[in-house]
Amino acid sequence: MLKIAWSPLYAHPLPKGHRFPMEKYNLLPEQLIYEGTIREENLFKPLMLDDKWLLNTHDPAYVDKLKGLELSKSEIRRTGFPLSKELVDREIHIMDGSVEACMYALEFRVAMNIAGGTHHAFTDRGEGFCLLNDIAISANYLLDRGFAKQVLVIDLDVHQGNGTAEIFRNKPEVFTFSMHGASNYPLQKEKSDLDIDLPDGVGDDRYLEILDSYLSPLLDQVQPDFLIYQCGVDVLESDKLGRLGLSLEGCKNRDKFVLTLAEKNHVPIMCCMGGGYSEKLSQILEAHANTYRLAQEIFF
């Protein structure tokens, strides 16, 4: 059964005019249930992840400041969110959603988190709509609990996974692969284990060709026993914050390629949703929904 982390907290309201589309977190499960892709029993509600696992990845001083709502104005501005207890609680629930989704992926081969993909959170700070890093927390959880020995992070958001790269800079048990827009945020890139910098405007065929040429050999090289997939849909040509040129079909084919690769190689995969900022919310929802439809089709 496809298990999916979702909580009403995911759609925490933001000030009017804020560019982050929180509405998608409620609308996406509604759409998937309405069309029959999933049922209510596919969804599970995450809880507050134990501090132990936050501190296993993030600096204790930063976690204390975050939970105490004591970030400076510049630190808050860097996250892009107005700081509140509700927002921090939401983030900790997202962390638990990804960790629990990893556990379900070990059982069912694939699992998803409707939120997550918070790859801009560093060891000691948040950035770019990310307060804590669910990818890193999940990978460390798997390794420390003995559920995996080698994790491969596949980050295909249009923005580089800079926080994830920093966190795992000196940890060979986690291989970080980020394929992103070269001229997009963040201006100052970190060094992943493998970075593929794409020029503006790359379309479907070229994108998939590049992805195939790097990712297929990477599985043979790294020999992972778990995959964490950041599948942001801000690669779409319609995205306000992206500069690539993928169509909805191209984005779908990207996800099909990654999920099929995981299934064929018998490697469990946890998918976290990442970004998506197209003008039309319907395009964001359709692109995200395709990932779930494909997971059902390929694995079940």
UniProtKB/TrEMBL annotation:
| Organism whose genome encodes this protein | Litoribacter ruber
The protein's matches in CDD domains, at most eight in alphabetical order, are given as:
HDAC_classIV
Q: Which UniProt keywords apply?
A: Hydrolase
Molecular function (Gene Ontology), one example:
hydrolase activity
Q: Which domain of life is it from?
A: Bacteria
Instruction: Write down what this protein is called.
Output: Histone deacetylase
PANTHER family (UniProt xref): HISTONE DEACETYLASE 12, HISTONE DEACETYLASE HDAC1-RELATED
Q: Domain (Histone deacetylase): give its ranges.
A: 18-290
Q: Which family does it belong to?
A: Belongs to the histone deacetylase family.
One GO biological process term is: epigenetic regulation of gene expression
Keyword Transmembrane helix recorded: no
| Classification via Gene3D superfamilies | Histone deacetylase domain
